[in-house]
Write a structure and sequence with these properties.
mainly alpha; 11% strand; 126 residues; TnpV protein; TnpV; 3 strands; 5 helices
C-alpha cells in the first residue's frame, strides 16, 4: 500500500494511517479579515451552496475566496456610486445647498448599488 495518495478530483492528498487513508489537512496563515460582503457570501454558501462551501473549506481556499469577493464587491460598490452620482447630478454643490436632500439621494444610491452587488456577486452560483 502506498503511504500517500493524491486525488485529482478534489485536489487533496491522503496519508495512510493504520488501515485508513485520511486527508492531509493543514491550517493556513490567512486571517479571516473579510468584511460585510465576505460574511454575506459565506452565509450564502453555507445555506445554499453547501458542496462548494465544503470544497473551498477542505482545500483551504475559503478565506481567500471570501477576501477576494469582499474586495471586489467594495471596489464595485465604490465605482457604481460614483457613476450613479454623475448620472443623477449629485454634487458637492447640492450638499452645500441642501444637505438633507443630498443625504436622502445618497442613501438611495448606496442602497441601489448594494442591491446590484448582492445580485451580481454575492448571491450567484459562481
Amino acid at each position: 500500500m502506498q503511504n500517500e495518495i493524491y486525488d485529482e478530483k478534489n485536489g487533496l492528498t491522503y496519508m495512510l494511517c493504520g488501515d485508513y487513508y485520511l486527508p492531509e489537512l493543514a491550517l493556513t496563515d490567512i486571517e479571516p479579515t473579510y468584511g460585510k460582503y465576505g460574511m454575506l457570501r459565506k452565509s450564502y454558501l453555507q445555506e445554499h451552496r453547501k458542496a462548494k462551501y465544503q470544497i473551498l473549506l477542505l482545500q483551504g481556499k475559503l478565506v481567500e475566496h471570501l477576501n477576494q469577493i469582499d474586495a471586489e464587491a467594495r471596489d464595485r460598490e465604490e465605482q457604481l456610486v460614483k457613476q450613479m452620482m454623475e448620472k443623477e447630478g449629485i454634487t458637492e454643490e447640492l450638499k452645500r445647498q441642501d444637505n438633507m436632500e443630498w443625504t436622502r439621494r445618497m442613501n438611495t444610491l448606496c442602497h441601489d448599488a448594494e442591491e446590484m452587488i448582492l445580485t451580481e456577486m454575492i448571491y450567484t452560483k459562481g
